[in-house]
Amino acid sequence: MYRFEEQTRDRLRELAPSSTVLVPVGSTEQHGPHLPVGTDTTIVTAIAQRAAAAADVPVVVTPTLPYGFAHHHLPFGGTVSLGLVGYLDVLTDIGRSLAVDGFRRIVFLNGHGGNDGAVRSVGDRIVFERELDVHVAGTSYWTCAADALADADLGVGPVPGHAGGFETSCMLALRPELVRRELMPAPEPDLQPLAYSDIPGATIRRAGVWAASDGRTDDSRHASAETGERALALIAASVAGFLAGFHRSVQ
Questions:
Q1: Is 113 helix (H, G, I), strand (E, B) or coil?
Q2: What is the per-residue pLDDT across 155-210, written as a single tens digit (0 to 9) for each?
Q3: Which pLDDT tens digit goes with each residue over 46-91?
Q4: pTM above 0.90?
Q5: Which of 4, 23, 69, 124 might form a disulfide with 114, Cβ 3.0–4.6 angstroms?
Q6: CB 108 within 8 A of CB 25
Q7: For 89-140, what is each residue's pLDDT tens digit?
Q8: Burial level of 123, CB count in 10 A (0-12/13-18/19+)?
Q9: Which alpha helices (H) appear in the chain, and where do they start and end?
Q10: Are 217 and 163 in contact (CB under 8 A)?
Q11: How far apart are CA 207 and CA 210, in angstroms?
């Protein structure tokens, strides 16, 4: 695994033709009363670096993009959001830059739900609209690791959810000093309405559901560092496998 920002321009030129470049994308947004606003960025950065280190192919990891499409979080404060079209433009420009650098294999790894649509679309922009001779993949870490997460039955609520048991567990494993345990929401008898807003097989947006849910999907009563580390290991292994398969699919 190579960190993009630690290489010289000449070393990157050498690495580019035979490597996959991995671009983690996160967000800066509210995460309830107890988690830092950089939660998504922290988690996806850790997953990207662990996965790249575990993959048995050469992977160059860029710095994580810490901003995304997060307009639905703006009313709560603590959020910096890009417009959806502007965000897609940013991803496209990142991909174009990497193509000019000589990379032929580009993977965007997403860690924030609001980015998912743009991450899935950026390959069409780069390959077909910009007509660049590169191979582009875009996935969210929970999509890439869906089977492993389903089999794991972590028991902490929706995965990934938002500001609930799953993300709290991951942050307890990665940056426990940033988790305000004394501010965790009290145990609740049911999930927040946000946790029920989707129907399998479709992407649904419902006006008012974020405000009605206090910007969370669930409480954190079952969160633990041990569960977070287990989840991160499972996800990183799945992403590593995906990176290897993608890399080898490009001749």
A1: helix
A2: 999 999 999 999 999 999 999 999 999 999 999 999 998 998 877 778 888 899 99
A3: 999 999 999 999 999 999 999 999 999 999 999 999 999 999 999 9
A4: yes
A5: 69
A6: yes
A7: 999 999 999 999 999 999 999 999 999 999 999 999 999 999 999 999 999 9
A8: buried
A9: 9-15, 39-54, 84-100, 116-124, 141-144, 146-152, 165-174, 209-212, 225-249
A10: yes
A11: 8
Residue 21 structure tokens = 């470049």
Residue with tokens 């000589």: 102
| 246-249 LR contacts (CB < 8 Å, sep 24+) | 246/20, 246/105, 246/107, 246/135, 246/137, 247/20, 247/55, 247/57, 247/58, 247/59, 247/105, 248/57, 249/135
Tell me the two tokens of residue 183: 């501010």
Q: Which residues pair with 3 in a beta bridge?
A: 61
Q: What is the pLDDT of residue 154?
A: 95
- The residue behind tokens 């035979």 is 18
Question: In whole angstroms, what is the distance from residue 2 CA to residue 167 CA?
Answer: 27
The rounded distance, in Å, linking the Cα atoms of 13 and 72 is 40
Q: Which two tokens stand for residue 18?
A: 């035979």
Contacts for 200 with CB less than 8 Å, ≥ 6 apart:
none
107 SS3 class: strand
Q: Which of 174, 159, 143 is nearest to 50 (CA)?
A: 174
Number of neighbours of residue 97 by Cβ within 10 angstroms: 11
Q: In the structure encoding, which two tokens stand for residue 52, read together? A: 């790249």
